[in-house]
Design a protein that fits this description.
single chain; Phosphoenolpyruvate Carboxykinase, domain 1; 14 helices; 8-stranded mixed beta sheet; 27% helix; globular; 3 domains; 30 strands; Phosphoenolpyruvate Carboxykinase, domain 2
């Protein structure tokens, strides 16, 4: 049964029919009726979409002052034009309305709404899982601060792939055209929420959060990283029976205070197996999960390794289906932050950064792109400030705010390589940084069990030793040893020189960035 219709909240346009806040049973029924959806052997839904990743090249911020943004922009008159086209389309359609909260802290949560074609009910079901639930009393008087208006089946000619994501930050409305990929709903709300957090004096981090028990105390860790680089895996892998708190976005405030955003997880499923990632696997194989583009045979059996359609298979799961999950309202502040860097040359398994270096590597946001960013990014070396492609303002503002927040908190910051050292996947001289290595590193950081020494080339501290990464695996901690053992010392030196030069040039592009941050890479 549908929940109450908000008394005060008129939609921007009147659809032919509106289904207000349908139940999960209704959404599941509508999803299973979709021609591109099948039921799996776990009795959850698996939808095959036309678009299999987020559409960065089709995303624009609407403004008449484009100089204030690093994002692609369109004028407000162009926004009015495309809005009129979408509104006219919606008048002839049945639409679903899903209301809920981004965040669950009463002092910080934000009212959010998704309006989407009922023909794409899976997106509504997934978004309802991620919103924190509004009570019937709250829904009766619901006034959204952020709204996503979503028409997956309406082309917008003249834009890349005839697709458009138009972001109206001034009015808190994002309009999505011609994409049936759920990430545009999820990120549509969170992108606008990024600015709200910034305006409140904090910074939205593209980060997971976990709590690791250490003796009679707990250590709270944040894990930032580009989608697909191991953020979810690092968050949900257990150390000392740790508790995941949040998977994808948190608000970091002065003093290290952390606020949550979502009541679930949008997990990447490629390579998912019960042995290495039991927490995520267990949640993905519940009846309540919504799957997207996961390979499936006629018997409903899933194959998380088949990438014949896409490597960016996904699943939305409820936080209540994630074993040991903890509420963010129960934690006081963050103790450490990990900046993930999926690399394949000389980045160590872990490096400890001082305040200047931390802000610099945050701005560098170095990693290998994954299928989450589409074919244009997959496998390519990227630099994405804050590893947050959804920050809608000037990136210098993001870097400067991060610096300020570090100054207000004793939080430690580390660089964590989740890729390889010594070469790419096809190079048999290289060594993979395995999940077990990363887990041992995170455990040692939480327990203060790392023996550190200064790296002569980059000035950060690298691990001389730590429990669980020993013997030949020590080369994961000190890549120089691998290169020296293989007679590749000159190659190592050339990579050092190249990285330093490229980083200095890269930092020059961010006008207004605190010069102390830029100097930390010289």
């Amino acid at each position: 049964m549908s929940k109450p219709v908000p008394k005060q909240s008129a939609l921007p346009v009147e659809p032919q029919k509106t289904i207000w806040n349908p139940s999960q049973d209704q959404l599941r029924e509508l999803t299973l009726a979709m021609e591109n959806t099948r039921e799996t052997r776990y009795s959850n839904t698996n939808t095959h979409t036309k678009v299999d990743s987020r559409s960065k090249l089709s995303t624009y911020v609407a403004t008449n002052t484009p100089e204030l943004f690093d994002s692609q922009t369109i004028s407000r008159s162009e926004l009015a034009r495309v809005s009129a086209i979408q509104d006219d389309y919606i008048r002839g359609r049945e639409m679903l309305v899903v209301d809920g909260w981004i965040g669950n802290d009463l002092e910080f949560r934000v009212a959010a709404r998704l309006i989407i074609e009922s023909a794409n009910a899976n997106i509504a079901g997934m978004q309802q899982h991620l919103y924190y639930t509004a009570t019937d009393e709250e829904l009766a008087n619901f006034e959204p601060s952020l709204t996503v208006i979503y028409t997956p089946n309406l082309e917008m000619r003249g834009y890349p792939s005839d697709r458009l994501i138009a972001v109206d930050l001034d009015n808190g409305i994002t309009r999505v055209f011609n994409s049936d990929y759920f990430g545009e709903s999820k990120k549509g709300g969170l992108r606008m929420w990024n600015q709200m957090v910034y305006d409140r004096g904090g910074l939205a981090l593209h980060a997971g959060c976990k709590v690791i028990p250490v003796g009679d105390r707990s250590r709270v860790g944040l894990i930032i990283g580009l989608s697909g680089t191991g953020k979810t895996t690092t968050t949900f892998t257990k150390q000392n029976n740790s508790s995941p708190v949040q998977d994808d976005f948190v608000a970091l405030m002065p003093g290290g205070k952390v606020y949550s955003t979502e009541n679930g997880c949008f997990a990447k499923t490629f390579g998912l197996n019960e042995k290495d990632e039991p927490t995520i696997h267990g949640a993905v194989t519940t009846r309540h999960a919504y799957l997207e583009n996961v390979s499936q045979n006629d018997e409903g059996e899933l194959d998380f390794y088949d990438v014949s359609y896409t490597q960016n298979g996904r699943a939305v799961v409820r936080m209540q289906d994630i074993a040991g999950a903890m509420d963010a309202r129960n934690i006081k502040s963050a103790d450490f932050l990990l900046i993930l860097n999926r690399n394949d040359n000389i980045i160590p398994g872990v490096a400890r950064l001082d305040r200047h270096q931390a802000a610099a590597y945050f701005m560098l946001g170095e990693t290998r792109g994954t299928s989450a960013g589409g074919a244009a990014e997959a496998g390519k070396f990227l630099r994405v400030p804050g590893t947050n492609p959804f920050f809608p303002l000037k990136h210098a503002q993001q870097g400067n705010r991060f610096w300020e927040l570090l100054e207000s908190s004793p939080m430690e910051v580390f660089l964590l390589n989740t890729g390889r050292i010594g070469g790419g996947d096809a190079d048999d001289r290289s060594r993979k940084v395995r999940i077990q290595h990363s887990s041992a590193i995170v455990k040692a950081i939480a327990e203060g069990a790392v023996e550190w020494e200064t790296d002569a080339d980059f000035g950060y501290e690298i691990a001389a030793s730590l429990p669980g990464v020993e013997g030949e695996d020590n080369e994961v901690l000190q890549p120089r040893r691998l290169y020296e053992r293989q007679g590749r010392t000159e190659e190592y030196r050339q990579i050092v020189d190249r990285l330093k030069s490229e980083r200095r040039e890269y930092m020059k592009k961010w006008e207004g960035l605190n010069p102390e941050i830029a100097r930390a890479v010289s």
